[in-house]
Amino acid sequence: MKIEMRDIYKAFGQNKVLEGVDFDLEPGEVHALMGENGAGKSTLMNILTGLHKQDKGTVKINGVETVFKNSLEAERSGLAFIRQELNIWPEMTVLENLFIGRELTNAFGVLKTKEMQKIASDIFKTLNISLPFDKEAGFCSVGEQQMIEIAKALMTDAEVIIMDEPTAALTDREIEKLFEIMKELTAKGVSLVYISHRMEEIFAICDRITVMRDGKTVDTTPIPETSFEEVVKKMVGRELEDRFPHREAKPGETVLEIKELSRKGVFNYVNMSVRRGEILGVAGLMGAGRTEIMRALFGVDQADSGEVFIEGKKVSIRQPIDAVKHGLAFITENRKDEGLILDFSVRENIGLPNLGSFAPNGIVKANEEKQFVEMMVKRLSVKTASPETIIGNLSGGNQQKVVIAKWIGTSPKVLIMDEPTRGIDVGAKREIYELMNELTERGLAIIMVSSELPEVLGMSDRILVIHEGKIAGELGRQEATQEKIMALATGGN
Amino acid sequence: MGTQGKLNDGSTSIWQKFGPLFALLLLFIVIAALNPSFLEPLNIMNLLRQTSINALIAFGMTFIILTGGIDLSVGSILALSSALMAGMMVSGMDPILAILVGVLLGTLMGVLNGLLITKGKMAPFIATLATMTIYRGLTLVYTEGKPVTGLGDSELFQMLGRGYFFGIPVPVVIMIIAFFVLWFLLHKMSFGRKTYAIGGNEKSSRISGIKVDRVKIMIYGIAGTMAALAGAILTSRLNSAQPTAGQAYEMDAIAAVVLGGTSLSGGKGRLFGTLIGVLIIGTLNNGLNLLGVSSFYQQVVKGVVIIVAVLLDRKKS
Ligand SMILES: Nc1ncnc2c1ncn2[C@@H]1O[C@H](COP(=O)(O)OP(=O)(O)OP(=O)(O)O)[C@@H](O)[C@H]1O
Ligand SMILES: [Mg+2]
């Protein structure tokens, strides 16, 4: 399928999002779409697949001008879209999610479960994932939910598959598998649009790249003719310094210590500690239990046994509020379900965990709140029309920045970050790393769970590798390499 | 890099903000045109006084609906607390003290709802459906199904339902005070922010360190308090406690909240909207009576108005 988008314009109210974008897709190519957070990438793809309608401009498919009335029509015409914000029905099972809206039934409308299970297990085999079909999707990790979405798209026999940050929550192992499948698909003539902020991936898998900036196309180039630096320069309009800021750690005394923390079937006898001013990286494969350990530590889930010490004192954390009281903060991996209140404005979201300081006697000090929010919006360069904008209308990366902003203000002692830069562009990532440096200099301890190995290597003072719910090993900043981490993560040594 | 201009985020359309107010004005104009005596001060005062009981209940209900919950038991709380107050007065307790204790008992009944919903992990609909019949049943047991009369002639107590304050009926004054207190709580205090947050996304709220259970229990407690306060006014007005008082009042309260633009799925809505919603229902009741519409038809009209209002509200998106 050949797609030509010409001179596309789109505004939401007064907010001009696209101002003359051109984009082409050839059969059998992998076409990267890059740009800063809020550049308009997702919006462009939403227009292509009928969710939004452009104000101006044309879309031609195989030479014929086409307007899809809705996403379903686009899907039926062979365009599959793996969205950045996952569309999971949390109360339904994995299998039900895979077939939602296109269940297989017999003549009487009775579900053909066996057949669906067969198709699903085939697709899971190709993707090399093992997820029980009857598990409630809401209990799956973000990475697993992402795999469900990928599987869903692959089941449609689409001619065009758009992937909006498919790998943001995946670890190297799944990404490798995904790339293999992508190659098989393109060999069959399927075209792929690949949106990602992970540079290495773009250069590993894509044929051409289109860079967008402020709602306009900068240009389209074949991958072999360009470089990291050039792409970044086109994206942000200036040269960028190194991806990771210089980091000099001066770890102080231990603030948090976990002893023999266990949760049956999820993780066992986990011991870890983190010091003031230290960044502890936590690596591991998808499903290794990294997120689950953090959730239990923060009181979102209950651990079966184990002890937690803060500043040497044993504490009991049974629900998140206990954790907050003891000076913990938790940036969750799932911003949509657990990080944000989508109907709230940017201000209200950032204000929420900080109400204690803005409303010491229950009355919200609107001015103080406003000032603080404006400062954080600036500090993290959140691209929003105003602090009063409803957060659901922000681009994915900008929503993520708000999740980070809301916890910084609580002045925690230990900040737990689960996939903190998920969906954040290269420029903004560096700003977040700098912020992490600044926070640790002030004595904060950070536990950073991340699937992005360069980030783990670039920022951690110490790295814990988790394998199947156990700590497989610990690596110092100097000795750690990608290979050593992967070896531990896969159960070797 | 910055974004220019103001963004219309579509969160509050003109209708959402002023629609219910327009509807109320329209209703006023139509009824006044059909029967000018509708606008006489005496009638307006009457209308407001008739409205005040539903208003108090609906204010409390707004908080509950904002969290995505519902309270079907408010009518029964009204009846039970009214019966208990009256009983205490009959047995010789100081009337004002009896009212205070009665209102407090209403708070407790609400708190019990909250406990069932949070600690008992019951759906609000089920929990309050059960307590609705329990509280009603207790009322019938306590009163033996008969009105409680002989409440004495304390002037302060009589004032509550029948008195005037600078020409304004006391129930209306209470309604106005309650409105401002609860408006402040909802829109200016962190408690209100937490209320909206819970309705918007309970999981996120919990992880943000909000004591979700405690906030909910307090909200159901507030609703119970408001229902009992309405009960006190009614008791004074009738100079007796009726075992069947407050039946189906929860429906009028829910209708008012919804008419005022609050979403039943929680997270969105305003207390001012509820005030307008209450006035719309009150105006309909009063106006249709004035126009001599039979009470059978009145019910039909009320239902139609709710459907039209909700349809208009839908249209904005
Ligand atoms: N439904 C909407 N209503 C209002 N504004 C919107 C809406 N959807 C997107 N926007 C705005 O359009 C701009 C572009 O958003 P878009 O999601 O396309 O960015 P993106 O390039 O995908 O960014 P990211 O890398 O963060 O995912 C943002 O400023 C966003 O606030
Ligand atoms: Mg996007």
Automatic annotation (TrEMBL), chain A:
**Phylogenetic lineage:** Bacteria, Bacillati, Bacillota, Bacilli, Bacillales
- Which UniProt keywords are present, listed alphabetically? ATP-binding, Cell membrane, Membrane, Nucleotide-binding, Repeat, Sugar transport, Translocase, Transport
Its membrane topology, per UniProt?
Peripheral membrane protein
**Could you identify this protein by its name?**
Sugar ABC transporter ATP-binding protein
Looking up SUPFAM superfamilies in the UniProt record yields: P-loop containing nucleoside triphosphate hydrolases
Q: Name one GO molecular function term.
A: ATP binding
GO biological process terms on file: monosaccharide transmembrane transport
| Assigned GO CC terms | plasma membrane
- Location(s), subcellular: Cell inner membrane; Cell membrane
From TrEMBL, chain B:
What membrane topology does the UniProt entry give? Multi-pass membrane protein
User: Listed GO cellular component terms?
Assistant: plasma membrane
Q: Where in the cell is it found?
A: Cell membrane
- The gene from which this protein is expressed is rbsC
Q: Which GO terms describe its molecular function?
A: transmembrane transporter activity
Q: Which PANTHER family match?
A: ABC TRANSPORTER PERMEASE PROTEIN YPHD-RELATED-RELATED (PTHR32196), RIBOSE IMPORT PERMEASE PROTEIN RBSC (PTHR32196:SF72)
The family database entries (Pfam families) matched by this protein are listed as: BPD_transp_2
Which chain regions cross the lipid bilayer?
A: 14-34, 55-84, 96-116, 123-143, 163-186, 217-235, 271-290
Any idea what this protein is called?
Ribose ABC transporter permease
Q: Which organism is it from?
A: Peribacillus asahii
Q: Mind listing the UniProt keywords for this protein, alphabetically?
A: Cell membrane, Membrane, Transmembrane, Transmembrane helix
